[in-house]
Amino acid sequence: MIKTALISVSNKEGVIDFARQLAKLGIKIISTGNTAKLLKQNKIKVTLVSDVTRFPEMLDGRLKSLHPNIFAGILADRKNRKHMNELKKHKINTIDLVAVNFYPFEDIANKKLKTDEVIENIDIGGPSLARAAAKNHRDVLVIIDPNDYSQVIGKIENKKIDGNFRLRLAAKAFLRTAKYDTIIGRYFAENFLKDIFPDIYNLTFKKIQNLRYGENPHQKAAFYRSFSIKETCISTAKQLQGKELSYNNILDANDAFELVKDFDRPTAAVIKHTNPSGVASADRIEEAYKKAYETDSKSAFGSVVALNRPCNAEIARMMKPLFVEVVICPKFENEAIEILKDKQNLRLLETGDIVKDYESPDLRRVSGGLLVQTRQMPDLKEKDLKVVTKRKPTKEEMKALIFAWKVNKHVKSNSIVLARGNVTAGIGAGQMSRVDAAKLAVMKSEGKSEGSVMSSDAFFPFRDGVDEAAKAGITAIIQPGGSIRDKEVIEAANEYNIAMVFTGIRLFRH
Fold first, then answer.
1. Residue 151 falls within a domain, yes or no?
2. Which domain holds residue 235?
3. 406: nearest Cα among 372, 443, 453, 359
4. Count of CB atoms situated within 10 Å of the CB of 476
5. Which residues are paired to 419 by β-bridges?
6. Neighbour-count burial of 285, counting CB atoms closer than 10 A to its CB (0-12 exposed, 13-18 middle, 19+ buried)
7. Which residues does 73 contact at the CB level (< 8 Å), separation at least 6?
8. Are residues 336 and 410 in the same domain?
9. pLDDT tens-place string over residues 116-158
């Protein structure tokens, strides 16, 4: 039976109506600070925490509820005679319901305020109350989510507060306190440890949505968003129309958008199964999309498209007759939405202006563990390259080589990218041998390899990759170098008058 409730909330949403209904049910309400003030202003009878503790709030509000008269009333096991005798001896009453939520630390921390201001928004009493009530959930209802207020009132009115309901509320409370502490820990680790790989690596995420299924129909899945996002990404995108996103849609849209984010010029990418089938940069985003699609129009069937500029009417008209699963970009112009609205299954994802954050780590989940690494470098300058052949690349070849290298970062290994100017000509992805990746890229180019340049994500272990490049009419190659057979590979390039540059940087992507 609920006789006494403690209410102390930072988020006041719904609390007035909740407290009023508790009062109507004859439940005594204890409250603190601003919550008590708000309830009193709304003619709800409230007992101040200081009246229960017989001790004033102090230290600018840092100390309010942290007192045995409160915590003993929450933690006492009602079936334990010793516990109840101790409460009686010290004239402490039980508390049967605790409704709390915490200072919005994550919002404050993201505002880049001074450390002292951020620290003042670390809630101590709220999480302590929630943990105590959740621990003693058999006797105490704990509510940390305003969305649960109406259900709690209904359960109390109908006297249907079962053990399973209590456990569910306790689980939510423990998850919330764990999230809160994780966000505080991440803030201190990132700002004061100055170690991107601390001994303890805590993460916390909030569910965005349940998904229809996972990679395959027999697998269940859900999509979560990190609480520490500092960049524009798939997790921050807003869906404007179309079917519910699938697990594979999200993977493809993520990889597509991360690729175009790497480019400053208007750039479009067409993605299938997390690999690009075509990428292009141009002066106009319409031209970039057209060229990216034409790289491999056959593979573009059922693709995901990413743009690093707004989608306008001209692009929408080009897309309308095609089968495209998802389009992700910073903005959709109204006319583009109007053109595409008839394609009811087409998912349109709007991200807002692009904000990059190459400092945030790259995370990969493995069974029983987590891999954390720094991200691939976002750019490559001509001055960073080492020409290793007799012939130097022309200016046009050098631009194409750097473009191909940037695309190559986003192609699964072993991978080869062919490019002409700022447009991919052919892509060979995910092969077990490098020469097969080269052959596949040439095959996918469908005759466009003549006069193109080649990027390889890792060194050529043998000269056979260069032999294939020569047969395909490739004029210049960019690769990391570092093979024990580099001399043999360079000699092969010289034989064919192919210019070759080394980056010293490998682009493996598994």
1. yes
2. 213-350
3. 453
4. 27
5. 424, 453
6. buried
7. 4, 52, 87, 92, 93, 94, 95
8. no
9. 888 888 888 889 999 999 999 999 999 999 999 999 999 998 8
Do 224 and 137 lie in one domain? The reply is no
Question: Which residues belong to the active site?
Answer: 135, 273
Report pLDDT for 270. 97
Q: In 143-174, which positions are buried (b, 16+ CB within 10 angstroms) versus exposed (e)?
A: bbebebbeebbebbeeeebeeebbeebbebbb
Does 344 share its domain with 416?
no
**What's the number of domains the chain is made of?**
3
Rg (CA), the chain: 30
**Could you tell me if 271 and 160 lie in one domain?**
no
Instruction: Answer yes or no: do 320 and 427 share one domain.
Output: no
> What's the angle, vertex CA 134, arms to CA 38 and CA 149, rounded to 5?
40
- Confidence band (pLDDT; 50, 70, 90) for 108? confident
CB-based contacts of 26: which residues, under 8 Å, 6+ apart?
Answer: none
Taking Cα atoms as reference points, which of 479, 464, 505 lies closest to residue 388? 479
Q: How far is CA 386 from CA 49, 380, 477, in A?
A: 72, 12, 12
Amino acid at 329: C
**Which CATH number does the domain housing residue 422 bear?**
3.40.140.20
CA atoms within 13 A on the CB side of 311: 32
Residue 35: CATH number of its domain: 3.40.50.1380
pLDDT in tens, 73-87: 999 998 999 998 988
**Which of 193, 224, 240 is a domain's end point?**
193
Length of the chain: 510
